User: Which sequence fits this backbone?
């Protein structure tokens, strides 16, 4: 029985290793471009802790406040399945999809659920508390993987290294307990900070280098690469015999800390500037941590050794598998490891062009796997009625120049309903978009500030 | 003011809804195709001179000069092996000695209580092969059975002595005692194991093939009567005599008479051609552990071209050939007769027609000069004649064709294959060009497909220097593409017939450039395949 368990564990380890071959290092959180423009919504503190809600007290309705995002950086569905000009039939055009891809592409799913949050104002200080469940998965695939599938290795990849570097799938799941404080200093400056205790639930990440080179003359195949996989509590997820997580594991390990910093400055009566750094911090994964690491591999397959085949054909496959086993050695350990949070920087400005109309802009930066990405958002919002506020924004991000966001809030007494998306095209026509995002929720708000009430009164007039 | 922005907002929302509601149904995918191109290596090999020239038996190839790395094909055969027992055999020998009352001198009447003794000497000449004179023999096996029978009614003691036969350092002698118990005839016998005994058959260097048996009988009277007709008979049987070694003069006997042919594997599957080597050799290696000289005569040396049915006789070679005797027992002499361009008139030309066999006959005679000394042999003595044909690979050849038929079946599903391209990538370190014609036939050898209407040059000769040795290998890539129609033809394929024609670099030119093969030459072979797929779905 012990041996069987041992075998099962080895099998699990192998399964994990193979699975984690396709796993990425860091998942990619939502950008929340639109949310940054709705700076008086309680949830705007998620992107800048210096933002003050419009009410003195808010309580987010438990569980309801959620954000869902799905993005695919490679291509839009309608770039792969194109509508035929003569009718509405679809034709598969992988070459077109291929031309839209970057070297490394992501398929990301992100879910955030505010289990509980509230905030209140104490003079110039606003204090918030939140408990959030975050779950992110990501599949990363290199362009050459798609090219291999579409063209084979005998097309444009002949004589080239098909780079499968970065091929992977990632998973990050953790609970975030946040305590935020912001305070106004004088009439113009507001500073905010949010300290977050993080409880990691499960993680898997890889560092994958993998390539397949086909010799243009001899067609010899050379596989090179090195794989490293970190996981925590993942074996428990994969174990069919497991009854699930032991709650003690949630308490005993995988602790982390993070911090959000924000500032806002009222430059003129109508113009304010703000900025924030979100998710500085890390999680140390030490609960059921398992790291698999392969040796650096360079294996060349030249075909069957004819001399051996002519002398004993039965041993040919064994020789190939033996040589593969020799070049591929995998070590494992249970050392703890650390993953950084997905740090974003927002720098924005907002100009109140009319009493009920404001425009703004945000310069967004992110650092993902040592790569810098940036985005520019232009936004406008308007209070259409005393209870309805709507906004629209335009974002240029990741080679996508047609991202339009829409959102609104409806205030009815102590209730505040909001619904927003960074990309309305993604919602209405997902085939024509690379991103799909929705954030929604209901807050209970009390003691809306005087300025807000004045605006409301003027609208009633 | 109150409602000024509402129409704008409604316009934006309705526009976006209109865009989003445009029909896009992924289930309306029309038939499409997928045309991947897959390139894979199939096989590789590095063939050296042994793989190419001596695949069946690596002993066929010999490095004849380790410093230079020059090589030769050497094919061997054993002409004859003459064992000692084929030359000398000692037959079973039976000797009978009779004693009568006269020999004993006993009184005819009355009771006898006295004692008398009688003796005889018997000369024995063992039977051996004609012309063989044995001097000494050490026995490996053999038995001497002695039997006695008498009707004397008295006690009798019989003693047999063979002075020439030494057993454990002493003359062999046995005594058989018969004690009268009231019945006759009285009998007795004894068996003597002769293993390890030795015998001198010369009687002190005066003769050969001869020895004496001395018998003595003593009669001790028991008081019984003497009738006067009593006899006593001794029988002595030498059985199963085998020598361990022997000396003598073994005569002028024919030894090693035989013939053999050597298969020249390099030409085994050839379809003809011209093949000229600069320095071929035929070598006869005679090993002799018999203690006598031998004169060898090699006759009817020739090559046989099976395909043409022609024979080519070697002429002008030295004949006969003397084989010396070893100095003593346990030794062996090796004598070599080499036929080469220096001593054999047409040795070069008999290889030219790419023969399949080398045929020869050998006849040996012992003691060609007569009885000039003592011969010897052991039971393990042997006389063997190994023949070998050595072909140093220096020369030129052209039109050297080979063919082979290989079972081949192609039952793959090719519906999704547009074409298949086979790439032969051969880097040749040999000074040989090779063109090939590959034909695919069905079970009735009906033509299904020919890979090329003309022979394809798969292998291009390496460059050689003025000394005929390779300076630079040459790479040649040959692509053979089969389209879908041609692949369809292969569904009934049963055999692959590969025909190849080779020639040494410029071998067919009037200059007949001489090239030389070294043990370092190699061919690097790589076979790849590129499949153009075509799948509709």
Assistant:
């Amino acid at each position: 029985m012990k041996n069987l368990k041992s075998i099962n564990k080895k099998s699990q380890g192998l399964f994990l290793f193979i699975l984690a071959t396709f796993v990425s290092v860091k998942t990619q959180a939502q950008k929340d471009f639109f949310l940054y423009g709705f700076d008086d919504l309680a949830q705007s503190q998620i992107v800048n802790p210096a933002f003050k809600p419009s009410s003195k007290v808010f309580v987010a309705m438990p569980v309801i406040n959620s954000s869902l995002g799905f993005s695919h950086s490679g291509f839009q569905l309608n770039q792969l399945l194109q509508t035929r000009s003569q009718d509405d039939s679809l034709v598969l055009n992988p070459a077109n999809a291929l031309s839209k891809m970057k070297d490394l592409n992501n398929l990301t799913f992100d879910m955030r659920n505010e289990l509980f949050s509230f905030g209140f104002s104490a003079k110039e200080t606003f204090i918030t508390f939140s408990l959030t469940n975050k779950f992110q998965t990501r599949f990363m695939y290199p362009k050459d993987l798609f090219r291999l599938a579409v063209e084979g290795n005998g097309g444009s990849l002949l004589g080239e290294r098909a780079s499968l570097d970065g091929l992977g799938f990632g998973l990050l799941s953790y609970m975030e307990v946040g305590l935020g404080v912001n305070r106004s200093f004088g009439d113009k400056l507001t500073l905010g900070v949010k300290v977050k205790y993080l409880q990691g639930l499960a993680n898997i990440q890889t560092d994958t280098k993998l390539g397949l080179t086909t010799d243009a003359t001899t067609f010899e195949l050379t596989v090179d690469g090195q794989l490293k996989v970190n996981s925590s509590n993942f074996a428990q997820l994969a174990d069919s015999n497991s009854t699930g997580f032991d709650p003690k594991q949630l308490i005993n390990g995988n602790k982390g800390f993070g911090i959000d910093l924000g500032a806002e400055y009222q430059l003129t009566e109508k113009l304010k500037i703000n900025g924030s750094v979100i998710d500085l911090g890390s999680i140390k994964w030490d609960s059921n941590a398992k790291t698999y690491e392969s040796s650096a591999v360079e294996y060349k397959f030249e075909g069957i050794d004819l001399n051996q085949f002519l002398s004993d054909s039965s041993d040919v496959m064994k020789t190939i598998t033996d040589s593969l086993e020799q070049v591929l050695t995998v070590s494992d350990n249970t050392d703890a490891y650390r993953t950084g949070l997905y740090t974003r920087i927002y720098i924005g400005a907002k100009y109140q062009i009319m009493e009920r109309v404001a425009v703004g802009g945000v310069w967004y930066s992110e650092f993902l796997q040592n790569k810098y990405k940036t985005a520019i958002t232009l936004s406008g919002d308007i209070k259409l009625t005393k209870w309805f506020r709507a906004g629209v924004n335009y974002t240029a991000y990741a080679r996508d120049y047609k991202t339009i966001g829409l959102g609104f809030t409806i205030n009815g007494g102590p209730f505040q309903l909001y619904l927003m998306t960074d990309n309305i095209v993604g919602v209405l026509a997902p085939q024509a978009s690379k991103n799909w995002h929705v954030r929604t929720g209901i807050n209970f708000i009390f003691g809306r500030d005087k300025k807000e009430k004045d605006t409301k009164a003027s609208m009633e007039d | 003011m109150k409602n000024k922005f509402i129409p704008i907002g409604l316009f934006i929302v309705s526009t976006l809804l209109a865009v989003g509601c445009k029909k896009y149904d992924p289930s309306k995918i029309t038939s499409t195709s997928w045309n991947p191109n897959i390139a894979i290596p199939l096989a590789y090999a590095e063939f050296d001179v042994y793989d190419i020239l001596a695949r069946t038996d690596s002993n066929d190839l010999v490095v004849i000069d380790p410093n230079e790395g020059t090589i030769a094909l050497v094919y061997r055969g054993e002409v004859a092996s003459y064992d000692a027992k084929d030359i000398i055999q000692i037959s079973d020998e039976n000797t009978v000695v009779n004693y009568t009352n006269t020999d004993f001198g006993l009184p005819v009447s009355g009771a006898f209580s006295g004692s008398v003794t009688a003796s005889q000497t018997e000369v024995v000449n063992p039977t051996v092969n004609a012309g063989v004179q044995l001097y000494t023999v050490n026995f490996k096996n053999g038995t001497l059975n002695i039997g006695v029978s008498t009707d004397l009614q008295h006690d009798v003691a019989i003693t047999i002595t063979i002075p020439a036969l030494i057993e454990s350092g002493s003359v062999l002698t046995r005594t058989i005692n018969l004690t009268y118990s009231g019945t006759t005839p009285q009998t007795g016998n004894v068996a003597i194991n002769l293993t390890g005994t030795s015998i001198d058959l010369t009687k002190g260097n005066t003769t050969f093939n001869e020895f004496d048996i001395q018998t003595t009988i003593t009669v001790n009277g028991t008081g019984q009567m003497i009738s006067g007709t009593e006899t006593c008979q001794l029988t002595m049987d030498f059985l199963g005599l085998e020598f361990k070694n022997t000396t003598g003069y073994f005569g002028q006997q024919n030894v090693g008479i035989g013939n053999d042919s050597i298969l020249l594997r390099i030409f085994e599957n050839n379809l003809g051609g011209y093949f000229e080597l600069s320095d071929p050799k035929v070598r006869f290696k005679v090993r002799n552990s018999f203690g006598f000289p031998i004169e060898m005569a090699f006759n009817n040396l020739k090559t046989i071209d099976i395909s043409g049915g022609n024979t080519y006789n070697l002429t002008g070679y030295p004949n006969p050939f003397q084989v010396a005797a070893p100095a003593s027992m346990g030794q062996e002499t090796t004598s070599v007769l080499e036929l080469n361009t220096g001593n054999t008139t047409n040795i070069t030309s008999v290889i030219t027609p790419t023969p399949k066999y080398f045929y020869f006959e050998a006849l040996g005679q012992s003691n060609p000069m007569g009885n000039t000394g003592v011969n010897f042999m052991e039971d393990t003595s042997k006389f063997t004649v190994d023949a070998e044909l050595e072909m140093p690979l220096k020369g030129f050849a052209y039109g050297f064709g080979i063919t082979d038929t290989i079972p081949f079946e192609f039952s793959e599903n090719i519906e999704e294959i547009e074409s298949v391209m086979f790439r032969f990538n051969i880097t040749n370190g040999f000074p040989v060009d090779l063109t090939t014609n590959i034909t695919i036939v069905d079970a009735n050898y009906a033509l299904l497909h020919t890979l090329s209407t003309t022979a394809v040059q798969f292998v291009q000769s390496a460059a050689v220097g003025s000394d005929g040795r390779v300076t630079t290998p040459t790479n040649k890539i040959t692509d053979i593409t089969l389209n879908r129609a041609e692949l369809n033809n292969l569904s009934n394929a049963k055999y692959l017939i590969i025909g190849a024609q080779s020639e040494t670099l410029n071998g067919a030119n009037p200059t007949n450039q001489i090239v030389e093969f070294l043990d370092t030459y190699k061919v690097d072979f790589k076979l790849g395949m590129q499949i153009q797929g075509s799948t509709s779905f």
In short: The first helix of chain A runs from residue 2 to 20. Residues 1-28 of chain A have pLDDT under 50 and may be disordered. Chain A touches chain B through 48 residues (CB under 8 Å). The longest strand of chain A covers residues 189-214.
